């Protein structure tokens, strides 16, 4: 009854006004209802079940790809979760700028089009920094996205230094998708440190962050040459080599 989400689908239809995020598309022989973002339920067009919901008047986003809709759903979820958080810069930039920027680094600089990686980038700090749970991400965005987020989530029950040490240790053993998110996360954070020093940070603390980040990135090499070169350049400016 369940089939994998058809990422080539070009048309989306709203099936239930109270359930934004659930869409349907149809072909000559099938109608498919997207459940969450990851799975679709496909029924024969001859099945009368809910076919009235596909009436022409209910068609929405006909020129929009389903992936664009999924990304909007994802960025909206992240924005709601990070609603009350600010970055550490003196300007108190809204936190959501960070996950959006990480996803944009992947798409615009890293050439990444894997929707699950871009979704995981948008969600990468939700479990670590908000009340979001792994189960919640899995139910809403599917097991792959939830697993990538899990891989980039620190265990907050551990002391900070231990968490930082574990990031260095775990980096080489992450999945390719998680490594991409980690590279973009580090690139964003290092650029941010160059742009503006967080309130209360000394020059030494900034330098220590670069040293630690270089150790993590060392374990991520061989993942994306463009992102790695850009990181290498930032480390070089700080007198660090990978
Ligand atoms: Mn982050």
TrEMBL record:
PROSITE patterns: HD. The keyword Manganese applies. InterPro entries: HD/PDEase_dom, HD_domain, MESH1. Pfam families: HD_4. Keywords: Hydrolase, Manganese, Metal-binding. SMART domains: HDc. Gene3D superfamilies: Hypothetical protein af1432. Its EC number is 3.1.7.2. Its cofactor is Mn(2+). It catalyses: guanosine 3',5'-bis(diphosphate) + H2O = GDP + diphosphate + H(+). One of its GO terms (molecular function) is guanosine-3',5'-bis(diphosphate) 3'-diphosphatase activity. CDD domains: HDc. The keyword Hydrolase applies. Residues 95-190 form the HD domain. PANTHER family: GUANOSINE-3',5'-BIS(DIPHOSPHATE) 3'-PYROPHOSPHOHYDROLASE MESH1 (PTHR46246:SF1). Belongs to the MESH1 family. ppGpp hydrolyzing enzyme involved in starvation response. This is Guanosine-3',5'-bis(diphosphate) 3'-pyrophosphohydrolase MESH1. It comes from Salarias fasciatus (Jewelled blenny).
